[in-house]
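Re-running Integral membrane protein to confirm reproducibility after the cluster update. Everything else is unchanged from the original entry.
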Amino acid sequence: MAARVQGDPVTKDAATRLPHGRALADIGPIEQLRAGRLGVRLPLLLAGLFLYGASMAMVLRATLGQIPWDVLHVGVSHHIPLSFGTIVIGVSLLVLLGWIPLRQKPGLGTIGNALLIGPSADLVLSILDEPSGTVWRVVLLLGGVVLNGVATGMYIGSQFGPGPRDGLMTGLARITGGSIRGVRTGIEVAVVAVGWLLGGTVGVGTILYAVAIGPLAQLFLPLFTVELGRPVPPSNT
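Result of re-run:
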């Protein structure tokens, strides 16, 4: 007889509470694997990471403005003689340092974010052409922003831990008691401002993403979050 799984074992001190009574568990990588429901969570993680990269490619091909973190990366590149990719890695490491006071725990999702999002974006870029008309650019931009919100909900909701930047969001939400929507929007707006001051390019798509991604993450994260349970030994009766 398969072991039963109790309801929600996550305490308020170890979780980020979401609407609809769901919670993001603040647990380490070993606990993530032992929390069960891997048949649901692993595919959700992989699909979310692929779609995240695809959404980045869609926004890039729309050519109406990049996502906020890329505005920052480009801005930094004007002042430091390093490649774009090296700067992205450096910023990621700095963001991970910000996890320390927040007591965030990296997991498979953190590693997957670094290894899978880039290749999936490259794959979609190789088959997705730049639209020729303004209307189609807008459609591609809107689709990319919405898909990014869906992908964020999927890969974070798989409970394998967020990527460096999303971990900053969930950590701040947990510590401050603020909403995912408010914290995410605040981070994106701040990143855009700093990137612009450093010389990065801001477009309509950048502003749209910064304003919309918070509410989208707030909408989709509860829908995709997988409830974790604690295995219970089978009854002898």
